[in-house]
Write a structure and sequence with these properties.
alpha/beta; Rossmann fold
Length: 292
């Protein structure tokens, strides 16, 4: 897609971080913007900021884990603007711990937002995108969709699935001959609010406790989550700015580029991806090169 002005973009998780950066950038390109988000005060603040910046924006309360709410986001957009040209399947949350000690409620929540949210987005928006003369879907995965660091089981599983689903869509679009294109966004560290994802986590329903497995790292599941949050906060503090990620996404849409590996110059990420893929080809055991 080359021309953005006057066309319509929808962004899930658009009230903060990368999603808000995308909303700012796509709005600056002259698109009508719809942001869907579960955090109402942040959504209202984002709409106010974008409006003040001259963007024609609509905010819609939407929990991406719920198929009906995603469909309602699509219906509201169609009622208002009659089309969708760019759909950013971006809402996501972080969470993990030792895979066998991670509570079911954590698995449900992270997979619910990061994977089911993307599935719901595909089901509600791709039927609209394939009817346009130019359209693009951007699925936000992560470098965690290409490498598998420890203590991030639910997050890694969700993001690997988003990469796989995106490649699947790319091939399916080719088969059906649509003008729609796909990109998968795989950022490294980005300075956002992801370390406080728990702010949007529904209260676990009773049986969300950790597994009965032995406490091998001397921390219960909640302590592991808190440690993970602190490590993540430290990592993203010096991360890329969301606006720089958004600029790369717009470039990728224009170039019809599938892979958006934002931290291209950061050779430790690329080395980790390369080493992981090569170990599969060579049948050697995985090495952890992430922080090298
Ligand atoms: N920040 C990073 O370093 C980084 C790196 C790689 C990938 N990502 C991915 O980028 C995406 C955006 O995250 P971010 O870093 O901007 O974090 P963020 O917390 O700043 O933004 C995430 C947004 O998603 C919204 N959200 C959470 N649960 C939701 C739900 N159930 N329904 C609708 N909206 C929901 C939040 O309210 C928030 O506005 C995520 O998919 C994340 O996994 C982030």
């Amino acid at each position: 897609m080359q021309d953005f002005a006057g066309r319509v973009a929808v962004i899930t998780g658009g009230a903060s971080g990368i999603g808000l950066g995308l909303a700012r950038r796509l709005g600056a390109e002259g698109m009508h913007v719809v942001i869907g988000d579960v955090e109402r005060p942040a959504l209202d603040a984002a709409v106010a900021d974008l409006t003040a910046a001259g963007v024609d924006v609509v905010g819609v309360s939407c929990d991406v884990t719920d198929a009906d709410q995603m469909q309602s986001l699509a219906d509201t957009t169609m009622d208002r603007f009659g089309a969708v040209h760019v759909f950013c399947n971006n809402a996501g949350v972080g969470g993990g711990g030792l895979s066998w000690e991670t509570p079911l409620s954590m698995w449900d929540w992270v997979l619910g937002v990061n994977l089911w949210g993307v599935i719901h987005g595909i089901r509600s928006f791709v039927p609209i995108l394939v009817q346009q003369d130019a359209a693009h879907i951007v699925n936000t995965a992560s470098v965690a969709g290409l490498v598998a660091a420890p203590m991030m089981g639910p997050y890694n599983a969700s993001k690997h699935a988003v990469v796989a689903l995106s490649e699947t869509l790319h091939h399916e679009f080719a088969i059906v001959g649509t003008a729609a294109r796909v990109s998968v966004l795989c950022p490294g560290w980005v300075r956002t609010n992801i370390a406080t994802s728990e702010r949007n986590r529904p209260a676990p329903a009773g049986a969300g406790s950790a597994s009965d497995a032995g406490d091998v790292v001397g921390m219960d599941a909640e302590q592991q989550t808190e440690l993970g949050r602190q490590v993540l906060a430290g990592m993203i503090a010096n991360g890329m700015q969301p606006d720089d990620v958004a600029a790369q996404v717009v470039d990728a849409i224009r170039a019809e580029r599938f892979w958006v590996l934002t931290h291209d110059g950061d050779d430790s990420w690329m080395r980790a991806v390369d080493s992981r893929l090569q170990s599969a080809v060579d049948r050697t055991n995985p090495q952890l090169n992430l922080l090298a």
